[in-house]
Amino acid sequence: MGKRIVLGAVAILLVIAAAYASFYVAPEERTMGLVQRIFYFHVGSAWAGLLAFFVCFIGNLMYVWKREPKYDWLGVAGAEVGLVFTTVVLITGPIWAHPVWGIWWTWDARLTSTFVLWLLYVSYLLLRTLIEEPERRALHSALFGIFAFIDVPLVFGAIRWWRTQHPSPVIMGGPGSGLDPTMRKVLLFSGLAMCVLMAFLIAERYVLEKMRSEVDILQREAEAQ
Amino acid sequence: MKNLNSVFAAYLIGWGAFFLFYVSIAKRTSDLRAEVDRLKSSLTRTK
Amino acid sequence: MSLLSNTAILLGKELRTEFRSRELLTTTAVFILIVLVLFSFAINPGTEEARQFAPGLLWLAILFAASLMFQSCFLREQTNDTLSSLRLAVSDPFAIFLAKLIANTLFLLMTELLMLPFFAIFYNIPLWSKLPALILVLFVGSLGISIAGTAISAISAQARMRELLLPLLLLPLLTPVLVVSSLVTGSLLDRDPIVQWKGIGFLAVFDLIFLTALWLFGEYLLEE
């Protein structure tokens, strides 16, 4: 309990500091101006989301191997938190794109891949709601989660290599390529802050899932009587 | 200060999403805690 | 090797069951035909733009057809309760998946080949110049669809709302196949056709990765 409060406080402080850095420390981008400051938040969330899905994948693998419910809890927590972060990415992307390119949505490789990723994990969570028996739910969703995570690099590769016949918008030819050193530092810091926030949310979600399985056990006991 | 609204909206929606998610976790946790208490007391009563 | 002989026996059983009634093949073929005709109302075929859309539409039709076709793949075993006896009969449960996915690939490929002439006529696209390469693309694409589809149908067969769940789980997973195979097919059906070996290689890598995953994790899908 105490540890989680500390982690939460650190996460909030880091996120505020990251916001401060992206407004006052990072230099103003020449062509896009102010709106480019969404970049730090947007990309940071994307990193944290991907990392959360990786946590989900680890939970899935460990569940299949060890069959302990705690890994199942980790899997749900990772998937749900990752979904929140990718949702933020998918919302802030268009908000950034609109003033710059004049359109809300571009089928740009990165945004599209993130969207497919989002769909995959929505399916994962839906699958969980559709299997009644706890052990089968844990095992089958873990296996689907493994397939989904294996699919991620293939989705990114396919869309990146085959969907870019249309000239993609000029900015972000790759993060780090020609990125100002201060900007890069702010980006890394912002990514770190988002990852700490992600860790905090996963811890909270994990405890929730743990409690849910306790309730299940108690309910079964109550019914047995 | 062009596009201030966009930046403002992006940060507001982003933080709002995280906050709402946290609130939903807290809400679900407290509901479950109440459920645990209820079940425990009903179990001890029947014993 | 017992894996191969087991697979061969199971595959023979799958094929015999299907060819006795040919239910799956006819239904799926008619489904693809309907989708192709309906697409022609949604976009005007015969125009230059339709030529660009057509390969994507073909693959979309195949994907939808596959997600319907694979429904029965494990469900059939479940309703007759033959899965547990199957598992006892084979030494390696991977043989069950291997037999089913080979059968699925064959069925899918057969319906595709059956529908290809209709596709060419409806959308006014000459197929003959690069037919062997086209069949190769259809094969590696359908193999990928079948590998992932067989695995997912083992999951969806034991859940509620399984008819909806299978496409829901399968289609996002198959995005890479759709993207690459429709592009490769598109460049094969172009005015000056080229074979994109890189794309075919990518599809083969997809097949290999999912086959390995199924080999590693498939047995857990069959646990009671």
Please give a structural write-up.
- The complex is a heterotrimer of chains A (225), B (47) and C (224).
- With 225 residues, chain A is mainly α.
- Chain A has six helices and no strands.
- Chain A starts with a helix and ends with a helix.
- Chain B has a domain at 22-47.
- Chain B is built from one helix and no strands.
- Chain B has one helix at residues 4-46.
- The radius of gyration of chain B is 20 Å and the shape is rod-shaped.
- By secondary structure, chain C is mostly helical.
- Chain C has one domain (2-221).
- Chain C has ten helices and no strands.
- Chain C has helices spanning 2-21, 23-42, 48-69, 71-80, 83-89, 94-122, 131-156, 162-173, 175-188, 197-221.
- In chain C, helix 2 (23-42) crosses helix 6 and helix 3 runs parallel beside helix 7 (131-156).
- Chain C starts with a helix and ends with a helix.
- The interface between A and B is medium-sized, with 35 and 29 residues.
- The helix tally of chain B amounts to 1
β-strand number of chain B: 0
First and last CA, distance of chain A: 33 Å
How much is the radius of gyration of chain B in Å?
20 Å
How much strand of chain A?
under 5%
Mean pLDDT of chain A: 88
Element string of chain B (H = helix, E = strand) = H
Largest sheet of chain B: none
Helix content of chain B: over 70%
Low-confidence stretches of chain B: none
The computed structural class of chain B is mainly alpha
The radius of gyration computed from the alpha-carbon positions of chain A, rounded to a whole number of angstroms, is 20 Å
Largest interface: A-B, 35 and 29 residues
The shape of chain B, in one word, is rod-shaped
β-strand amount of chain B: under 5%
Distance between the termini of chain B: 70 Å
Query: What is the subunit organization of this protein?
Result: heterotrimer
Low-confidence stretches of chain A: 165-176
